[in-house]
Write a structure and sequence with these properties.
The chain is built from 10 helices and 10 strands. It is an alpha/beta fold. Helix 1 crosses helix 3 and helix 8 packs parallel to helix 10. Belongs to the universal stress protein A family.
Length: 288
């Protein structure tokens, strides 16, 4: 894999989690020896520039004059957003370099963040992004409006950051034997990112047969070497018992498959992934 297809990409927007996103991205880039790219996307929301409702009931001359003023105002706003974005990227670049990242790339793009990420997907090794952006900055019970679309659209690992940076020492791998869980297991076993860490391999199930699966998964991690493995089988509502386990064991990062369930009620009542994003006390590394 060439370096251009091995990027750690940090999506930043100036929210309160931006510094943490930068810090986690710098940590990953150094651990896996990959280039780091900082992305700021400017979504101009064309609907916000529709001023027809403001001008429909006034005279022609007044309407034209008002439209000119509104157009100039929107141009000024666009220039300001562009300037703010450049300053944000420069500050982020300085921050990740202070953290040890070498020659980070900055990229400012216009348009939908989801579309930008899809275009960049082939170059990604992992995406690092905040659990919420500026819109929900002061709403800790909310996740970002675009986050679920991003997770469903990409097929690369996504680290969702929800707190200030702490160099992970203890991770939790939520394991259920699914294809996504097996992918996560292989990643933890083979990536340099997890060497030297303690891995809590946790399965939530009443099925006794899951115990054998859990044992096989633990053996795979132990054979890979460099990881201390603690295997634990839990019973209860998955998002609740996993969140409780995070707090009890001081878990610094949780690794899990994303949107593994497709039953109708998961779509109606909210998926396990969304519940974990809302309830988790530590960053989530999601795999599709």
């Amino acid at each position: 894999m060439s370096s251009s297809q091995n990027l750690v990409l940090a999506g930043i927007d100036g929210s309160s989690l931006t510094n943490a996103v930068c810090d986690y991205a710098a940590w990953i880039a150094q651990k896996v020896d990959a280039p780091l790219k900082l992305l700021h996307s400017i979504d101009h929301h064309p609907e916000a520039t529709d001023h027809s409702d403001l001008t429909g009931n006034i005279g022609v001359d007044s309407r034209d004059h008002l439209m000119d003023q509104l157009t100039q105002l929107e141009q000024q706003r666009s220039k300001l957003r562009l300037q703010q974005g450049k300053q944000l990227l420069q500050a982020a670049r300085e921050r990740v370099m202070q953290a040890g990242a070498l020659d980070p790339i900055t990229n400012q793009r216009h348009g939908s963040l989801v579309e930008s990420l899809i275009e960049l997907e082939n170059d990604l090794r992992v995406l690092v992004i905040g659990v919420r952006g500026k819109v929900h900055d002061n709403q800790p019970d909310k996740i970002g409006a675009k986050l679920e679309s991003i997770i469903r659209s990409l097929h690369k690992p996504i680290l969702v950051v929800n707190a200030e940076f702490k160099a992970p020492e203890r991770i939790m791998l939520a394991y259920d034997g699914s294809q996504a869980a097996e992918k996560a297991l292989d990643m933890v076993a083979n990536s340099p990112l997890y060497k030297g860490l303690v891995c809590h391999l946790v399965c939530v199930s009443k099925d006794e047969g899951r115990g054998q699966l859990l044992e096989m998964a633990a053996n795979k991690l132990q054979l890979a070497g460099g990881i201390e493995v603690i295997a634990k089988k839990l019973i209860g509502i998955p998002e609740q018992v996993l969140s409780e386990y995070q707090g009890q064991k001081g878990i610094d990062m949780t690794v899990m498959g994303a949107f593994g369930h497709t039953r109708i009620h998961d779509w109606l009542l909210g998926s396990f992934t969304v519940k974990m994003l809302t309830n988790s006390r530590s960053p989530l590394l999601l795999l599709r």
